[in-house]
Design a protein that fits this description.
The structure holds 2 protein chains of 2 kinds. Chain A is an alpha/beta fold. Chain A has helices at residues 3-17, 39-49, 122-127, 134-137, and strands at 19-20, 30-35, 60-65, 74-77, 92-96, 107-112, 115-120, 131-132, 141-142. Chain A has 4 helices and 9 strands; from the N terminus they run H-E-E-H-E-E-E-E-E-H-E-H-E. The chains are: A alpha/beta, B alpha/beta.
Chain lengths: 143, 686
């Protein structure tokens, strides 16, 4: 697993820390992060998320492969989606620039000057009724 | 400090210094506390600032670290430029790799998180603040902020300066205000000190303090004013007392001066003042080339008056004499009482001896005039010795001595005489002194002997009496009574000598009486001052009793001068002798100053015509007339007359013709010794 994927896995986990789910998810204790990645990536992510509850609510992040998921609070899409039965309309989506398989993505990862950066679609986030921390916004390219 | 406690330092100065010292100490403590608090606060504030800043940076840089956004991190840290104390801010990731930084200076500092503990770290003058960035219990990185403490030091200096300025200003203000206040407060004390100094230096108590105050100082001032009033009154009393004392001292001094320099009886200068005047007079005479004479006066027969009439009369005589002398004085002359009956007159500015002769004569005349004192008519005279400067001596004491010596010479010449000093007198004076001593020894050793001049009846030419005559045989030969008797009189030895004579003669009469059985009257010459002694009759009676002889065998011979000094007293004394049974003869009659009218009342038995008249008998009618008159007088007064010094038959015949009763002299017999007398008397007894 290359360094970029590791960074991406860390970014994905870190995103969960700057998203306030309070308005859409009351009494939230866990989030399901669906990953459409290879198992190595998923495993690495799971390793990161394991035993690391997020935020003051101590929300537990559980990572599952998209194909195996029944519900996704967050989803990382890296290739076209095969499982059409899964409703991702209310899911915070994360895609890579140039490989966008869903019409919208709250987070769009891209590289600049050999650094992994991201873009946030605030409109999509508002639609999903999630608040994204300004801390994150100041790092991101927003639209 | 030692000088600060010096007693001469002003109390108020000490007080001011003490207040300033206390204030200074208090202000120092406050300043130190303030300064410490300020410095401490400033440091804490800086740490607190760094804490807050690091906290802010830590919170804000979490996302940058999480998403490896150095750019945003650098932007964030660059905000430190607004805090001038911050030197640099370094953000390290969790691997302690430098992630982002801000450096105020170009030279980046090389630090690592491992070097520091979390929180403030002081390395030298530099403050490092380390904060570990944690999120969800995960260390995201490390933040190190370094701040310069120069600002702290600057602030400390600033604070110190402020504190010092405040301290100095406060001290200055304290000094000025205290000084002013002290002046205001101590003004009355200063007034009091000024007054005390005024009183202590001037010894005046006339000033007062203002007592309009109603406080304690006012009470003090009231008290001080009361003390001053009391002191002023006391001073007034003291001044009055002192003035009285000074007047008294002045009076006493004057009295003492008068007492020391003037004779209390006559008010004339005494010998002390006289010597001063004489010394001054000699100086003046030396300078002015003039003469000054010392006239030494001694009153003749004064001792008789004093002894017989008493000191009161004697004192009055002296006063009278002093008045006479004062009247005679010329302008520049002075007179003093030398002592006893001696006076000294200084005659200054003498040009010729004639002037001294004139003065001496006037004195003799004035003193010779009879004085009526307490009913007594007194006849005295004076003998004057005169010594002249520069002729006789240049020394005051010696000049006085010379005048005294010449006075004795004058006395030898008889009463009422004056005599100028001659250097031969000195030899005579020495001889007289030697003679005095010899007489004194002779009296003690009974070296005198008596001879007896027979007296014969003019008609029967029989021995009817004797006159006792004193003789003095010495190793160098006989000494004439005419020489030693006056010396004995002047030396005050005559009475003692006379008493010896009385005893000797009475004893002799007794012996003759025993061998002869028929007594013979012996005349004894006695001096007037012995006769005048109130106790003399008793002395005489004792002598008669001692030798067991009848009084009629003793005849007392006195001179006319006995009556001159005080007739009454002489009469009283002679009356007492008469009562004892003694007969009285007046010796040398005709040469003295007898008052013939008074002679009839005198209790006398015999008149002895003076030998000078007898020796001139037949040579002049006047002399013969006097002798005849004396014999007639004696006969008319029923007195026995004796002719003395009869040496020729011619003289005897004249006296027999004139009716003189008794003849005495060499014509019949020279003076006989006691044994010769006894032989002469023997035939009578047979």
């Amino acid at each position: 697993m290359d360094k970029v994927d590791k960074v991406k896995a860390a970014y994905l986990f870190n995103f969960t820390k700057f998203i306030n789910w309070s308005e859409s998810h009351t009494h939230l204790t866990s989030l399901t992060f669906c990953l459409q990645t290879d198992p190595q990536f998923l495993s690495f992510f799971s390793e990161i998320a394991q035993n690391r509850p997020v935020g003051s609510e101590q929300i537990v992040i559980s990572a599952v492969h998209l194909s195996q998921a029944t519900k996704c609070d967050l989803v990382y899409i890296t290739e076209p989606i095969a499982n059409n039965s899964l409703d991702l309309t209310n899911t915070v989506t994360i895609q890579n620039e140039g490989r966008q398989y869903l019409p919208s993505a709250v987070f769009l990862l891209f590289e600049r000057k050999n650094k992994l950066r991201f873009e946030i679609d605030l409109k999509e986030a508002r639609r999903l009724n999630v608040n994204i921390s300004s801390e994150l916004l100041k790092l991101a390219k927003t639209r | 400090m030692k000088s600060f406690f010096n007693v001469s330092t002003s109390f108020f100065k000490k007080q001011l210094i003490a207040i300033l010292s206390v204030n200074f100490l208090s202000l120092m403590v406050v300043s130190v506390l303030l300064y410490s608090s300020f410095a401490s606060n400033y440091k804490d504030n800086l740490i607190s600032t760094l804490n807050g800043q690091s906290s802010l940076f830590a919170a804000a840089s979490q996302s940058s670290l999480m998403f490896s956004d150095e750019e945003s991190a650098n932007a964030l840290l660059s905000a430190s430029s607004q805090l001038p104390e911050i030197r640099f801010v370094k953000l390290f990731d969790s691997q302690m790799e430098l992630f982002a930084q801000y450096n105020r200076y170009n030279t980046p500092a090389n630090v690592a998180p491992a070097q520091f503990e979390d929180g403030a770290n002081m390395v030298g003058d530099v403050l490092f603040y380390k904060r570990t960035i944690v999120r969800d219990n995960e260390v995201l990185g490390f933040l190190i902020i370094s701040a310069e403490t120069n600002s702290v030091i600057a602030q400390q200096k600033h604070a110190l300066n402020i504190v010092l300025i405040v301290l100095l200003l406060t001290m200055l203000l304290t000094y000025i205000s205290n000084s002013r206040l002290q002046k205001l407060m101590t003004k009355p004390i200063s007034q009091l000190i000024k007054l005390v100094n005024y009183v202590s230096t001037s010894r005046q108590y006339d000033k007062r303090l203002d007592t309009t105050r109603n406080d304690e100082i006012g009470d003090l001032f009231h008290g001080v004013n009361s003390l001053l009033r009391a002191a002023q009154n006391h001073q007034k009393q003291l001044n009055n007392h002192t003035q009285e004392l000074e007047q008294l001292v002045e009076l006493r001094t004057e009295q003492l001066y008068i007492r020391a320099n003037y004779d209390s009886l006559t008010q004339l200068p005494n010998r002390h003042l006289l010597i001063e005047k004489l010394e001054k007079g000699i100086e003046n005479a030396k300078q002015n080339n003039t003469k000054i004479a010392v006239m030494f006066l001694d009153l003749d027969r004064f001792k008789i008056i004093n002894d017989s009439l008493g000191h009161d009369i004697g004192d009055k005589v002296l006063i009278e004499v002093s008045k006479h002398l004062s009247d005679i004085l010329r302008k520049d002359d002075s007179v003093c009482r030398w002592g006893g009956d001696e006076f000294v007159l200084l005659a200054e500015d003498i040009c010729h001896y004639d002037e001294l002769h004139q003065i001496a004569k006037r004195i003799v005349q004035a003193i010779t005039d009879p004085m009526l004192i307490n009913g007594h008519q007194l006849h005295i005279s004076t003998s004057i010795g005169i010594a002249v400067y520069p002729e006789h001596q240049a020394n005051a004491i010696t000049l006085l001595k010379h005048a005294d010596t010449s006075m004795y010479q004058a006395k030898q010449q008889g009463s009422g005489q004056y005599c100028f000093f001659d250097h031969k007198m000195q030899i005579e004076s020495v001889k007289r002194l030697s003679m005095e001593n010899k007489i004194r020894s002779a009296i003690d050793n009974e070296s005198f002997n008596m001879v007896y001049q027979p007296q014969y009846s003019s008609n029967s030419e029989e021995l009817v009496g004797l006159e006792a005559l004193i003789r003095w045989e010495t190793e160098s030969g006989p000494i004439s009574p005419g020489y030693f008797i006056p010396i004995a009189e002047e030396a005050g030895l005559i009475n003692a000598l006379s008493l010896w004579v009385i005893d000797e003669v009475c004893g002799q009469i007794s012996q003759w009486q025993k061998s002869n059985r028929q007594g013979i009257t012996v005349a004894i010459n006695l001096p007037s001052n012995l006769i005048m002694q109130p106790s003399f009759p008793e002395t005489m009676a004792d002598a008669l009793e001692k030798h067991n002889i009848p009084a009629h065998l003793v005849e007392v011979e006195i001179t006319e001068n006995t009556f001159i000094s005080s007739t009454e007293l002489a009469v009283q004394s002679i009356l007492k002798l008469k009562e004892l049974g003694l007969s009285i003869a007046i010796d040398d009659f005709g040469t003295g100053y007898s008052c013939l009218s008074y002679l009839s009342t005198l209790p006398i038995d015999t008149l002895k015509i003076d030998g000078s008249f007898i020796q001139q008998l037949g040579r002049g009618s006047t002399n013969d007339g006097i002798v005849a008159a004396i014999i007639t007088l004696g006969r008319s007064l029923n007195l026995t007359t004796i002719g003395e010094c009869v040496e020729t038959k011619h003289q005897l015949r004249i006296l027999q013709d004139l009716g003189c009763d008794i003849i005495q002299g060499y014509y019949f017999s020279k003076p006989l010794t006691a044994d010769e007398v006894r032989e002469k008397l023997a035939p009578l007894s047979s």
